[in-house]
Specification:
339 residues; binds protoporphyrin IX containing FE; 10 helices; alpha+beta; nine-stranded antiparallel beta sheet
Length: 339
């Protein structure tokens, strides 16, 4: 998986995403020089993914991707203009959160993904060793994805722990990705994107006690096929206006795909790249990427009012990060922001 280029790997490549993920959220010592730290982490990413890093202990990196982001506090301190940059705003609080202070926010995100689950903690240890005392880990989460269902040529999505195919709608064309996913500017952040990471516990027992039609009404799609309740194919956008002959919406008013729909909320598309978890509790490590934090906050605010899915969720960790622009051997990771 090429780690270099205009964008970091681990967002749109590879597709489909690798089956295993480890997310590490850490703080950066206030006295540490952030530019050199990120540059060193970038070099370590290159050697880890090339398989030349001794601290990988001879393991084959395979399709390992490592994606690095910095928290709002770090962006604000980047320069005099930092407080106005995308990525400088903290996430507000939402309903149904039970988040200990340790699991809210953070200065550094290291997202590692690979087919080989064993590589992930070893690569993370190498990066944390490189950072040394400059970085203090806050929390980490291992997560995984099951088999993928094909959505369209070259596009596939896995099921989540509620049994539904997750990650169908999003910015899939280059045009959509330019307009909604990647930051076009200002220059220090061009080629970056904004990540939101939220650990959401799911009440599997209560969800499983619902009939299949009730479960499908929660999402607005068929459980077996992923087809919207308004019809079409798995790749179809939900038709939110479609009604039964007696005038009821085919996609209920509180269905997740209606409450979260970009047009209903009035925002751009978010790229959802979530992974399932079973430790400390079963749930979803919800991960999304977009070029405007408002896309996420407005969507969740709209869901908070009445999304049927939220009744099955408790959020136990929450953070947002500026995913740094892509880098290579000549252009250090983070150099556009901290150079
Ligand atoms: C545990 C929590 C969640 C689960 C299990 C979940 C699952 C799903 C599923 C199965 C779909 C339908 C298929 C698809 O388009 O991928 C979907 C759609 C969607 N979800 Fe979630 N989701 C969760 C939380 C969230 C959150 C927190 C947000 C954002 C604030 C969100 C935003 C969206 C969006 C934007 C869509 C596409 C709607 C459309 O245009 O059809 N989801 N989600």
């Amino acid at each position: 998986m090429p780690p270099t280029g205009r964008y970091q790997a681990g967002v749109i490549i590879p597709q489909p995403a690798q089956p295993n993920l480890l997310a590490v959220v850490a703080d950066i010592d206030g006295q540490a020089a952030v530019g050199p730290l990120l540059a060193e982490l970038g070099k370590t990413v290159l050697s880890l993914t090339a398989g030349t890093e001794p601290r990988l202990l001879g393991l084959a990196p395979g399709d390992l991707t490592i994606t690095v982001g910095v928290g709002p506090g770090v962006v604000r301190k980047a320069s005099a203009a930092g407080a106005a940059l995308p990525g400088s705003a903290d996430l507000p609080q939402f309903s149904r959160e039970e988040i200990v202070p340790q699991a809210r926010g953070g200065d550094l995100l290291i997202q590692l993904c690979a087919s080989d689950a064993l590589v992930l903690p070893v690569a993370a240890a190498a990066l944390l060793d490189q950072a040394g005392a400059r970085v203090t880990e806050r929390w980490r989460q291992s997560a995984r994805r099951g088999p993928n269902t094909s959505v369209a040529p070259g596009r596939a999505a896995p099921r989540n722990l509620l049994g539904f195919i997750d990650g169908i709608i999003g910015p899939t064309t280059t045009t959509e990705q330019q307009s909604d996913l990647w930051l076009a500017g200002p220059a220090p952040v061009a080629g970056g994107t904004i990540a939101v990471v939220r650990r959401m516990e799911l009440d599997l027992t209560r969800f499983a006690a619902q009939s299949v039609p009730e479960q499908e009404a929660v999402f607005g799609r068929r459980r077996a096929t992923g087809v919207p309740l308004s019809g079409g194919t798995i790749a179809s956008n939900p038709d939110l206006g479609a009604k039964t002959p007696d005038g009821r919406y085919l996609i209920p008013a509180d269905a997740h795909v209606r409450r979260a729909h970009a047009n209903v909320v009035g925002v751009g598309l978010m790229l959802r790249r979530s992974y399932s978890i079973d430790d400390p509790k079963p749930g979803l490590l919800f991960i999304c990427f977009q070029n405007d934090l408002h896309t996420f906050t407005a969507t969740l605010t709209h869901m908070d009012d009445s999304d049927a899915l939220l009744a099955f969720t408790t959020t136990t960790a929450s953070a947002t990060f500026l995913i740094l622009p892509g880098f290579d051997a000549e252009h250090a990771l983070g150099s556009t922001l901290f150079g």
